[in-house]
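Aim 2 progress update. The chain analyzed this quarter is reproduced below.
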Amino acid sequence: MVEVLRMEEEDGGSSPERQNNGGICKICLEITKWLPVLFILIVISWSYYAFAIQVCLFMITELWLKILTLIIYHTVLILFLWSYWQTIFCKSGRVPKKFKISQTDLDRVESAQTEQEVNEVLETIVRAQQLPIQTRTNISQIRYCEKCSVVKPDRTHHCSLCGRCILKMDHHCPWVNNCVCFDNYKFFVLFLVYAFLYCFVIFAFTMRYFIELWNRELNEKEPISAKFHVLFVFFVATMFAVSLVSLFGYHCYLITKNRSTLESFRSPIFRDGPDRKGFSLGSYYNFVEIFGEDKRKWFLPVFSSLGDGISFPTRQSQGTNLTGNYNSIDTTDASSTSPDIDRFVEVKVEAKTEDFNHTNDSDRAGTQNGVNHLQRLSEPNGNISPAPIKDETPLVYF
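Predicted structure tokens:
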């Protein structure tokens, strides 16, 4: 008995040490996450010295070319750093409180014996809170996060590195130590654009001196350090430009298709099944959804995306009419809620009810069920009927 007590005392005495060790490990992990960002900043600082000082001030002899080069270079540099800053420090908005699953409902979900019982509980929550949910799991179940205890809004996924659910998550990028998501996706794309332009400007204005150095035609009076900087800044700019243009091209493709990186690997699932083009509204409207309707802000790293990251129009239900389609019926801040939100929901339900009145008795029950869930499948004959539920193994959503 005495030995057991001694062991308990020893374990209790070591718990503060464990907490201290855990705190140290957490600090080390946070520092490690910032290393890629620090590396990028070091490369930018060195490239500034190599190009702006060594090339522009000391090697370019023509005054007009020197001034022009410095103006172009610093303009691109400012936009590049501005976009990078926005991408890093713009955090994703929180999932609204209405999507939070209460402890009572959470206990019902955990005590459910079948997937059908789980789905019934989740469907009840969605109806009670009037949540704008369109996507499902592969067994037609409402998506929810066990770690955050929330019903997942459309296109939302849980990030294990950030430790919470991210609205319209694209991917977690170590080079910005942040999740690329609804709030900063425009900034990320502009970061790729201006990073490529930054590398291209350096590549274009140093090519002349690189060729002279390669052919040994460069002025022998130039110091060896200047030649070293010209050689390496040219290679580094070329290497980064090639990698950036491929990544930028891939995200241009995603923008025109209105897909995230996660959705390109795993199609969003609606009531009628997976649909890779479910959120696509056409190339132009897909672009406007991210960059906004104000053309003056398209290429500036200021937020101008449409919507709130919670509710998204789909090609089947919304078409290409963007007016009012991005209003969500749920926000964390009541002051920021549009006064027409409740009317938007009522009109949506009334439209479905009107279709319901024109259907036959066999379709009526299915349509009423769809009105309650705000999810429909339009068939070629004009009738509306619910999609079949598939019996498949559920996927794990992160």
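The radius of gyration is 28 Å. Strands lie at 144-145, 150-151, 157-159, 164-166, 171-173, 178-180, 269-270, 273-274, 377-378, 384-385. These observations will guide the mutagenesis experiments scheduled for the next reporting period.
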